[in-house]
């Protein structure tokens, strides 16, 4: 095999083989290498991050212990100091806009980065810790022992069988290795969402002016309701001299709508509340990628004899309304997988029972904790009632904010009842859905 630096090495066995050098794979490789395991990190792209699509926000606090003072090393474009949630109709928009200048200093809440740069950096940290990174290499199948346990991978390189104590599958939403291991069923459209985005170039000072930013401050905006009858969420994220604008839409709903994702993005860009941010911008990049649909009620099995699954391959993504998080869940699950794999190798037992500690680690962390807490929210956000709520909210705001002298101003309860009735909604549904959202925070 040829390493990233071009040296020929014939390698036949490692303690741990990690497939996929995205955030999950690099975190797993780094953690296992720090624990003293010999680690091979395989990446099918020419470099880590080459095949990844991501809107741009990374919640990096999960790195605090893994890479101390990571913010001094990582290739960050901006720090998120403004977060907005917008509910929109064809011509209306109602926003909750939160700003915090303290988020531009450690400890940072969110960062905006290009995945090609961030993934390459994190894989490089894993390399410096002792993991061996090999790019342009695809793991095509699992190697099995006489008892059926996983004992390595077969790659598309000549003589490319690599034995391992533990294989960590981080090979994306459509994980072939997880399916071959019997840890997840064959995927259907209902299991995935499509993320699509455009990267638009604007001068840095123009981005600062339009979004009200200074220095390295950044904005992250999520939008609901501006994609007509397709239940998509949209986003805008500011880098130094580009703005990413895109959509996340359930794959099955997209197929039923017969609308192309770039048409949905065009709707978002044309909305009167969004168009002023993007006027005159130049298209630099378009990309689309399947991601796990976080609304799935049941996660796949996460471990088997000799194998662990994490990141997108395990469906560990949070898509609950304004919470669109994936990279931090990938890193968190990668850390847990690296710890569990290294511990199993040290103990000389890589069977399913020995690797069960991986799930226990996830359950005691934010990864499964947050997924459990918000497990009902994705279904609620995609319900028929919820799809009417952006217009209901905008119409209610219009009624409350319209000055209609000489008539007295209506009360909030009166407005809600009248607007709800006009949209075929019942107050009991509003109360129940509101309570369900509040209960998720309980």
Tell me the CATH superfamily of the largest domain. FAD/NAD(P)-binding domain
**Average pLDDT metric:** 90
Q: Percent of residues in beta strands?
A: 25-35%
Shape, please?
globular
Number of helices: 14
Question: Taking Cα atoms only, what radius of gyration do you get, to the nearest Å?
Answer: 23 Å
Query: What is the CATH domain class of the largest domain?
Result: Alpha Beta
Say what the CATH topology of the largest domain is: FAD/NAD(P)-binding domain
For the sheet with most strands, the description reads: 9 strands, mixed
The helix/strand class is alpha+beta
- Report the strand count: 19
What distance separates the N and C termini?
Answer: 51 Å
Oligomer: single chain
As a percent range, the share of helical residues equals: 25-40%
Enumerate the spans where pLDDT stays under 50 for 5 or more consecutive residues.
Answer: 2-9
CATH architecture of the largest domain: 3-Layer(bba) Sandwich
The total domain count is 3
């Amino acid at each position: 095999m040829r390493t990233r630096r071009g040296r020929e090495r014939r390698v036949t066995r490692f303690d741990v083989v990690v497939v996929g050098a995205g955030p999950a794979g690099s975190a797993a490789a780094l953690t296992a290498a720090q624990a003293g395991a010999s680690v091979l990190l395989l990446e099918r792209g020419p470099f880590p991050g080459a095949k990844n699509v991501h809107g741009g926000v990374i919640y990096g606090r999960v790195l605090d212990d893994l890479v101390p003072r990571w913010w001094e090393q990582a290739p960050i474009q901006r720090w998120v100091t403004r977060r907005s949630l917008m509910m929109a109709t064809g011509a209306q928009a109602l926003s909750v806009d939160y700003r915090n200048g303290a988020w531009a200093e450690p400890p940072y809440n969110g960062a905006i980065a290009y995945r090609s740069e961030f993934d390459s950096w994190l894989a490089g940290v894993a390399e410096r810790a002792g993991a061996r990174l090999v790019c342009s290499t695809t793991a095509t199948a699992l190697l099995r022992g006489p008892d059926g346990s996983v004992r390595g991978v077969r790659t598309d390189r000549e003589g490319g069988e690599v034995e391992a104590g533990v294989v960590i599958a981080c090979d994306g939403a459509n994980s072939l290795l997880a399916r071959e291991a019997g840890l997840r069923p064959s995927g259907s459209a209902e299991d995935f969402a499509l993320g699509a985005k455009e990267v638009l170039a604007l001068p840095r000072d123009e981005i600062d002016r339009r979004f009200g930013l200074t220095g390295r401050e950044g904005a992250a905006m999520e939008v609901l309701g501006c994609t007509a009858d397709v239940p998509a969420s949209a986003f805008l994220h500011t880098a130094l001299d580009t703005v990413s604008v895109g959509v996340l839409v359930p794959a099955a709903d997209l197929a039923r709508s017969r609308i192309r994702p770039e048409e949905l993005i065009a709707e978002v860009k044309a909305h009167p509340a969004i168009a002023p941010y993007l006027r005159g911008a130049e298209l630099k990049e378009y990309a689309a990628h399947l991601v796990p649909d976080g609304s799935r009620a049941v996660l796949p099995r996460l471990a088997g004899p000799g194998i662990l699954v994490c990141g997108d391959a395990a469906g560990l993504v949070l898509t609950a309304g304004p919470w669109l998080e994936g990279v931090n869940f990938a890193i968190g699950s990668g850390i847990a997988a690296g710890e569990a794999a290294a511990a199993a190798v040290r103990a000389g037992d890589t069977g399913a029972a020995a690797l069960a500690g991986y799930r226990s680690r996830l359950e005691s962390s934010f990864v499964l904790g947050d997924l459990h807490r918000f497990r009902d929210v994705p279904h609620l956000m995609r319900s028929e009632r919820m799809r009417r709520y952006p217009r209901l909210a905008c119409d209610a705001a219009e009624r409350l904010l319209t000055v209609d002298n000489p008539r007295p101003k209506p009360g909030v309860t009166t407005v809600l009842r009248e607007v709800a009735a006009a949209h075929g909604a019942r107050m009991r549904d509003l109360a129940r859905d509101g309570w369900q959202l509040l209960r998720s925070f309980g």
